[in-house]
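Aggregate trends can hide what the representation actually does to any particular protein. This step matters because it turns folding into a mapping between discrete strings. For completeness, the protein is quoted in full, as a sequence line and a line of structure tokens:
=====
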Amino acid sequence: MTHATDTTTPRAGTAPAAGGAPSTGGEASPVIEAHDVHVRLGASPVLRGVDLTVRRGEVVALLGANGSGKSTLVRTLVGVLPVTAGDVRLLGHPLDAGVPWARVGYVPQRVSAAAGVPSTAEEVVASGLLHGRRLRLPRGWRARAREALDLVGLADRAKRPTHQLSGGQQQRVLIARALVRRPEVLVLDEPVAGVDRPSQEAFAATMTRLVDDGLTVLVVLHELGELAPLVQRAVVLRHGTVVHDGAPPAPQPGHGVPGHDHVHPHARPRTVHTQDVCPPGGPFEAGLGTAGGRFDGGFDGTDDERTAQ
């Protein structure tokens, strides 16, 4: 199997079968496995015995009300938060034993940094090539970053400072930062929350191309919206437990009609620090850190795509 560090690595979204051999039929292998997962934050239990399996090539939406545990679950699955009890495996490996992080892409909720030196879109995307003990960008990183930006339709803004981009464009830069690894599995936490309809449509078009290429996706959503045609299965959380795992629910009244922009007040950017998103030593700490010592891991800006044209 080729890896993200190989010169022959397949383009973003390509998902080779386990062991490098083509699939021979039958049920696809699990890419994400969670068994009886419990997570406590401080004294509060947030996840209570969650079971979840995402198989290779699936697109699974994680749904639920605010406070149901959706973001806590995905942050636990990618090693950002510790498991209190239970078992999590990624690409066949326990979280604490040899997960090939270069093959995992993660897009956190959009954040707004309190301070930091401005970075270009290209530099932010390149930071996605840093992981684990890799503290220097690999040779050819600019071409990799441009390729990822092209996938999200922002190649022409590679040199633009991120604070000059719209909210929707900033979110697409975060997605490109995950795609620059050319991952086999992509985990996204509310990627279209707080962005306008053109950005949602552009994101859906990008995801359609990647899923067609075999990318496995677990995505947290407030509602299915533009991604409804892609989602094969929905898992609904309530109070930290799974209450539904099966066919995606029908859209709520009014959510599927023209003019509904799927932008909700709770989805506005929040100010956080890097250590709040990835603890020291976490697998995605470098990706949310610096590229050339300049990127601070956050954005701010408006949500109107037209403001950055």
Remarks:
- Residues 197-212 form the longest helix (16 residues).
- Residues 1-25, 260-282, 285-309 have pLDDT under 50 and may be disordered.
- Residues 29-308 form a domain with the Rossmann fold fold (CATH 3.40.50.300).
- The first strand starts at residue 30 and ends at 41.
